[in-house]
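Quick illustration for those who missed Monday's session on complexes.
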Amino acid sequence: MILAHSAEEIFSSSHISRQLKNIARKVFNGERITFDEGVALYQHGSLSYLGTLANYVREKKSGNNVYFNRNFHVEPTNICVYTCAFCSYSRLIKQREEGWELSVEQILNIIKKYDDQPVTEVHITGGVVPKQDLAFYTELFRKIKAHRPDLHIKALTPVEFHYIFKKAKLTYEEGLKLMKDAGLDSLPGGGAEIFDKDIRDKIAGGKCSSEEWLSLHEIWHKMGNFSNATMLYGHIETFAHRVDHLERLRELQDKTKGFNAFIPLKFRNKENAMSDVPEVSVIEDLRNYAIARIYLDNFPHIKAYWAMIGRSTAQLALNFGADDLDGTIDDTTKIYSMAGAEEQSPKLTTQELVDLIKQVGRTPIERDTLYNEVKNYN
Ligand code: V47
Ligand code: SF4
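Prediction with V47 bound:
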């Protein structure tokens, strides 16, 4: 155990302010904290204090369980009509020769490589190009389901949907219904970046707005489906911007209960237009996981995405609110390796994931995308 504090130590300590003691009292009583209290946690909460609170919340929600799944990614293209300043992975249409753009058949061939493997999920997302439109994705989803009906398709973000539906002159409702009919099962959390308009305009100008991101997830949830949410942090945003982001997600989750997991995404600065912005420390990563766990009291799971922060930090995050490590991945995503992540060929076997979880004294649970238990490894 990394945690230095117990609840009693927090209340008896002369080094912890009255405000932080009040926040701790609320958290231990299962009460929701306010926006200002969220900012105070970012400003003044020590790592051990935040870890104690986050660990308490996590344990109440998930007990000793840590979840993972068997998954792989497909990135249909890295060509993109947008130019997000933090993105190391995309290439403009005029730089097409430096990128890739897969056809439906090429993607199906990737899917078929997993025919004899017990994967449960394919995660599909990438750049935005005119050719990969409504017809492309509905044909792709149909063909995946025809080939392997049990494979859960978690695909596309509001950034891609917004572009595709606008081009097809469809409302979000109409477009999502067509995608669902074709086989789409759930949505990943990408494209959220940071909801504050000024910061979003600076780092991700031109793509769907925060309101559009939230509205698309709300419509998807109201159709009876689930999704994830992310936050890109540790760049030019302030602590208040992070709490604003968490607040908007918490509000939507109150309305729909459609989010499964929240995934903090650490800004990585290699070879992008924001390479002059330093990356935050691992301490800040852990504080951020903890505050997310404390603030998002209505989110069932917090995911430490090991491909982005590396397996050691992901293990540490399990003591700061996270209860999910994502999946085996099988070296099928380039978004983070191209941005400088520690894991240059992200790939873990089920046994390696189980070992990572057991090393921190938790119970490894293989789950499907919707958190149904597939296998308990204890
Ligand atoms: O939206 C791109 C981020 C996201 C960088 O739902 C970067 O289970 C940091 O959303 N530094 C896509 N982040 C990935 C994503 C995701 C990943 C794992 C699991 C799930 C899930 C969703 O990657 C983008 C963007 O926010 N990103 N470049 C970068 N340089
Ligand atoms: Fe395109 Fe997504 Fe990269 Fe932005 S983050 S440039 S939308 S691939």
